[in-house]
Amino acid sequence: TTRNIVRLHSWSGIPREVRPITWRLLSGYLPANKERRELVLKRKREEYFRFIEQYYHSRTDEHYKDTYRQIHIDIPRTNPLIPLFQQPAVQEIFERILFIWAIRHPASGYVQGINDLVTPFFVVFLSEFVTEDMENFDVAALPLETQRNIEADSFWCMSKLLDGIQDNYTFAQPGIQNKVKALEELVSRIDEDIHNHFKRYEVEYLQFAFRWMNNLLMRELPLRCTIRLWDTYQAEAEGFSRFHLYVCAAFLIKWRKEILSMVDFQGLLMLLQNLPTIHWGNEEVGLLLAEAYRLKYMFADAPSHYKR
Amino acid sequence: CSMGSDDSYNFVFKVVLIGESGVGKSNLLSRFTKNEFAHDSRTTIGVEFSTRTVQIDNLTIKAQIWDTAGLERYRAITSAYYRGAVGALLVYDISKHLTYESAERWLKELYDHADPHIVVMLVGNKSDLDTLRTVPTDEARDFAEKKGLMFMETSALGSTNVEAAFSEVLTAIHKKVASREVTRGSISAVTLSSPLGPSSEAQEERKGCCRS
């Protein structure tokens, strides 16, 4: 099928110019059938703005005001170092997207971390209209309809992503608990040294990997790397829900030398919560993904062969 | 010297920061451990951690400060967060009354999970926002007294009382440990043995850089 072909070509990274359309396809937001696309886009965008008309005013209702308050205090703290995200027009877009998503998903509601997940979609869909210096681009200067289309598309693609990982954000966050346990189990099989080192210094995986799962490594990597990573996550079946685990394991092993040379609890935790990825780009992400793929091949597809 | 070298210390005290989202917990942590304040800090996800070594009564104390997300949903992971804690700063924002109203709920959660002898200070942060104050100092002090908590107003932004708040808590912890007011198996065991890792065992025998 068309979608499978797109998947195959996207796994190793999508060229910038075709990334917006490709992401809309891979997320399942746009149909593969070319004739239907325009109509679907139009319908979905209208649907989103009908939600806004119907529900956005309820943010001041007793029932929803806590949700709105939390979103409202988190938005300025989302990507605080990038001027683009300090613009009122952009913050309002994020608030609407997150509020509507939260009230439509009462089982989880708004959970901190979900705010980060809007960013890659917003940036990619905005990139269709910005050629340079996106970080300082004035979004309010775009035609209103363009702004609205970016907003609606970001909402729907983020919703598709979250559909696959909802149990990360439901009460007590069982999806995250399970994935952190799975990471621990996987690391104990692929790198006993690291695993024993953590045990010896009483480092618990939850202490650092909770954030890796909750924010899909977005707090550990520069935004450009997250976008590249999501090319693959969307190309891979169950990318966000399963493949991410192998990426986390590969990411941990990547710092093997630094981890093993740190011989106290304090030093280990400080290292693990501030891993030096600031200069990372496509090359590092590519290597990380290749290693993750190898781990997945060895341990997910034929786990019994490698069990200790 | 007032700061001990990083690997010599007599005690490790684990202190947790709790309170509602947005009251400034992360900035109290960074002000105390790095003397930094970030206007642009991101929301805390899960737990974050930092340390600072201080001198109290000629002893070198390593303060291990744990910061956590203030949002309800995360509390499921926080029993590990409280484990081994001997001190807590329960933080609210003096300009947001709602964050003060929830103090009682946080206190209950703390006592549900932590050592009963834990030293607790109620901290009214953002004292630089005095013109926007909605929580009177006296009201908070009375509440703290009633609950048997220490109390202080701080400003992580203005660097007011942050040092004082942490060192009063650390001193109180040290007094509890030193006076043997608490029995073995309680707070002393928590401070002196394994929750903080093998390197912190038998710390009383270790030599600090500043000991005479």
Automatic annotation (TrEMBL), chain A:
It holds the Pfam family RabGAP-TBC. Keywords: GTPase activation. InterPro entries: Rab-GAP-TBC_dom (IPR000195), Rab-GAP_TBC_sf (IPR035969). Signal peptide: none annotated. GO terms for molecular function: 14-3-3 protein binding; GTPase activator activity. SMART domains: TBC. Residues 13-237 form the Rab-GAP TBC domain. May act as a GTPase-activating protein for Rab family protein(s). This is Rab-GAP TBC domain-containing protein. The gene is TBC1D22B.
TrEMBL record, chain B:
Residues 193-212 are annotated as: Disordered. Residues 203-212 have a biased composition (Basic and acidic residues). The keyword Signal does not apply. InterPro entries: P-loop_NTPase, Rab_GTPases_membrane_traffic, Small_GTP-bd, Small_GTPase. SMART domains: RAB, RAN, RAS, RHO. It is found in: Cell projection, Pseudopodium membrane; Endomembrane system. Pfam families: Ras. One of its GO terms (cellular component) is endomembrane system. Keywords: GTP-binding, Lipoprotein, Membrane, Nucleotide-binding, Prenylation. It is a lipid-anchor. The keyword Membrane applies. One of its GO terms (biological process) is regulation of endocytic recycling. GO terms for molecular function: GTP binding; GTPase activity. The small GTPases Rab are key regulators of intracellular membrane trafficking, from the formation of transport vesicles to their fusion with membranes. Rabs cycle between an inactive GDP-bound form and an active GTP-bound form that is able to recruit to membranes different set of downstream effectors directly responsible for vesicle formation, movement, tethering and fusion. RAB25 regulates epithelial cell differentiation, proliferation and survival, thereby playing key roles in tumorigenesis. Interacts (GTP-bound form) with RAB11FIP1, RAB11FIP2, RAB11FIP3 and RAB11FIP4. Interacts (via the hypervariable C-terminal region) with ITGB1 (via the cytoplasmic region); the interaction is GTP-dependent. Interacts with ITGAV. Associates with the integrin alpha-V/beta-1 heterodimer. Interacts with VPS33B. Belongs to the small GTPase superfamily. Rab family. This is Ras-related protein Rab-25. The lineage of its organism: Eukaryota, Metazoa, Chordata, Craniata, Vertebrata.
